Amino acid sequence: MDLSYTPAELEFREEVRAFIRDNLPESIRAKAGLSANYHGQDVRTWHRILNDRGWAASHWPVEYGGPGWSAVQRYIFMEELLQAPAPEPLSFNINMVGPVIYTFGSAEQKAHFLPKIRSLDYWFCQGFSEPGAGSDLASLRTAAVRDGDDYVINGQKIWTSTAHEADWMFCLARTDATAKKQEGISFILIDMATPGITVRPIITIDGEHHTNEVFFDNVRVPVTNRVGEENKGWDYAKFLLGNERTGIARVGLSKGRLQRARRLAELSEALDGKLSDDPFFRRRCIELEIELKALEITALRIIDRQRKRNDGKPDPASSILKLRGAETQQFSAELVAEVAGPLGLAQTHGGHVPWQEFDEADLTAVLGAVPNYFYSRAATIYGGASEIQKNIISKAILGL
């Protein structure tokens, strides 16, 4: 199996790299080191620039606005975005709800929602986790009771990322209280402006507003907003969570952090010279580089296996990418925070910079490094906790 890139793929990488360099607005580029903290308008602006180029929905079928790329091209595109770094197209829209709608939705839902999802005229958030039903998602209790042409929804969601930015939510709600817990769940699209919805912020350890609690108090939603069959939402949720998993290792993000750590170490003085010459620092960088190369090779192997199988089903081996990728994101964020030192505690700069040659890109790599490190601790929880990934690996790959 040849895992090297073809000349055409290398040319494609240069095309993506040049587009990001020439089109990413300077106001967004200035926040490069604080990639967890792009404002909502930053995401909207860059997402729409990508959509105008036809690149926002990188893995969608051409008939729904996708560019028709191969799996390797999609992998290269995401790696270049993360390594730049630049905001990703909104994952809730592109990787999650969009594929569910074009796979299971009605013709009317496809015509109405897909163009707005692709252009980010509708910003979606994910209404899955609940108090007591996080990793055990099937234990959710939010209820949707049929009343004529509507569902009346009552319950609570938690850790709902970007609910304060969102126009819509794709929500799992229990439509049959008598069924087994993996059954009786439906997949429903909810307009966040509907009366009875309350969004309360959860400020995370990095001091930022990423997540929320969402409460539903007799929220009336048209039955026509249900995607697919009633009580089949668990199947659609599994499809959603398994969709486009090869990019979940976020190799480009960790590569970009490694580059910034090395750059800052070149500028930073240690007791015996530059920090970049310290053997312990160099060893940590090499360890991270080896881990990233292993992740990249694993991702390409999974892409190759999926191409040969061509059955549309996710490869259980992608759980390895999620598990090790999340740990590597934490390691790379920790490395940047350690190099940044006390200045990395700051969200904004107001004092003396302790390096001789310090440009704007270096500054943004330092500022917020510690809050960014704090936020990275959640990487082993969101998108499927590491314990869940280990269970999948043990059963589906090791046969335990």
Q: What are the low-pLDDT stretches, counting only 5+ consecutive residues below 50? A: 348-357
Number of helices: 13
| Distance, first to last CA | 28 Å
CATH class of the largest domain: Mainly Alpha
Strand order of the largest sheet: 1-4-5-8
Per the principal axes of the C-alpha atoms, what is the gross shape? globular
Please describe what this structure looks like.
The chain is 46% helix and 14% strand. It contains 13 helices and ten strands. The chain has helices at 7-23, 26-29, 40-53, 71-83, 91-104, 107-119, 233-242, 251-267, 279-309, 318-340, 360-366, 369-376, 386-397, and strands at residues 124-127, 143-147, 150-157, 168-174, 185-191, 197-203, 209-222, 226-227, 269-270, 273-274. Strand 6 (197-203) and strand 7 (209-222) form a beta hairpin. Helix 1 runs parallel beside helix 4 and helix 10 (318-340) runs antiparallel to helix 13. The two termini are 28 Å apart.
